[in-house]
Amino acid sequence: MAERPSRRTDPLDGQAALVTGASSGIGAEIARVLAEDGADVAVAARRTDELEALAEDIREEYGAGVEVVPTDVTDSDAVAALVEATVERFGRLDIAVCNAGLAVDEPVADLTDEEYGLMRGVNVDGMFYTAREAIPHLTETAGHLVFMGSMSGNHPRPANPVYAATKWWTRGFAISLQASLGEDDVAVSTVNPTEVRTEFGSESGTPSKDAFEPGEVTEAIEVADAVAYMVRQESPNSITSLDLYRRDKLSHF
Length: 253
Known about the structure:
- This protein is an alpha/beta fold.
- It has a seven-stranded parallel β-sheet, sandwiched between helices.
- Helices cover 43% and strands 16% of the residues.
- It has a domain at 73-248: Rossmann fold.
- The chain is built from seven helices and nine strands.
- Belongs to the short-chain dehydrogenases/reductases (SDR) family.
- This is SDR family oxidoreductase.
- Keywords: Oxidoreductase.
- InterPro entries: NAD(P)-bd_dom_sf, SDR_fam.
- Pfam families: adh_short (PF00106).
């Protein structure tokens, strides 16, 4: 009978992570829980002030090393600089969380080229650039690549077909990477939440944190805990996909 692994207090001690879209919401909570689990963290997003405030909180609460790297994930050079800065600061990269994403809630017939390009740039190009730059380092550490998916990538969502399509792309990309990177001992995972109460949606209207009352839908910390659970898994096993449903919302899909 295999020996049961011990439960470690700091399961990510000695590891280095980067998180995109970390200035608020799910990304900020992911950075916090990874630091709580012992990892040093590079936080990336476009809003520098929010990143600096998050970094100060993490340093004070968890004593973790934090690198602030303002980054536009639609810029491939900026993403390359993000990964380089992370490795230069911490000497390694064990976890890359591709979390940056946005949605513009307009019918396809009303969607402008700019709005379409913005969703594609962040949700598709940004995911690709981050994965491409992170993979060479993750192969050195038997690391973990995590994508923020959505239940919109599992089920048809007539309200926002373009956003849903970007999440179907994310799911397909992740599944293919699982097959291509497994022999390099790199884990690839996707977490797929339903509605989450964050600033998401503010690009085109009311952010979800204002549309829902606390406790009405999933909270950002709950998604972050799911990500932490996935990256705690040790080789050779990994959780390839985790669908985070609220029990009372299952009938909506």
